[in-house]
What we know:
With 286 residues, the protein is mainly beta. It contains two helices and 13 strands, in the order αβββββββαββββββ. It has helices at 10-23, 148-155; strands spanning 29-33, 49-62, 65-81, 89-104, 107-108, 121-126, 132-136, 171-178, 188-202, 205-222, 225-240, 246-262, 269-284. Strands 1, 2, 3, 4, 5, 6, 7, 8, 9, 10, 11, 12 and 13 form a 13-stranded antiparallel β-sheet that branches. Strand 10 (205-222) and strand 11 (225-240) form a beta hairpin. The longest helix is centred in the N-terminal third of the chain and has 14 residues, at 10-23. The radius of gyration is 19 Å and the shape is globular. The two termini are 31 Å apart. Mean pLDDT is 85; it is low at 6-33.
Amino acid sequence: MTSARSGAGFLLAACAALVFGVLAAYGSGARAEEKGPIKLTFNLPEGTVLQYESFNSLNQNFSGTDAAMNQTSKVEMAYGAAPDSLGASRVDLKYHEVKSSLVMGGKLMDWSPPLKLEGATIRIWIMPTADIVRFDPGRGIPGMSSPDDIQEIIDAWFVKFPEGELTVGQTWTEEIERGKRDDGPPAAKGQMVYTLKKCEKKGDLEVACIEGKMKLDLNQDTGAGTLVGEGKATLKAQVALVGGYIVELKETIDISGDIVSKDPITDKVTKRGTAATQTYERKLKR
């Protein structure tokens, strides 16, 4: 099963389009625990409700103009239903108190994010390995044109697990492919390599400390054209040994390439250089 963790999602598309228009912890850390093989499984016990603080940011230079978008929110992750016949359980993500800002060229802009997540509840069906089978945005999210618009947001709430047991130092790989096309390359293709670094106590929780490195080839449509380039990411996550949910996560994605557009009348192709750093942070507050 492939993931849709892309690293070039709606934030990049929104800011690229906007610039184009203008131009044209939980607790304290403790000692590492010596543990034998562990089995990581995503499985929220019935009745579980987890409270998170979420932070997303995008810092981008597009055709010489700098833009920085920051968004914070409070998110509730709750048990939804027991596993179905395929083994996929349901969890619900509910967004509260979403706040967003945009600074462009050093000036605070009058800004409304392209996706209105405030009050949205997204239902997700997820396998024990944290592979997302499907998701449902409920009554819909204002600004969402297709499931791809929120796929990246959802991916950043989970860390992919291998099928078998793990020991400290062991690695595993997640294959990534998003936006398949019949007449060209997918929107994003590459892989994330994870490593189990250690297990430790985090407050009253036992956690697995996981690091990941990702490389992607990008051919992503944006509001200003097609982003052709590459993405590189680093991920650090602390995952509860019992339940498999995120206790703390930070993922940083560096993107570089060109926004390629074509004049529909003259067929003239224009390339504008772009570079961006996208960050996702999640922290369990309970």
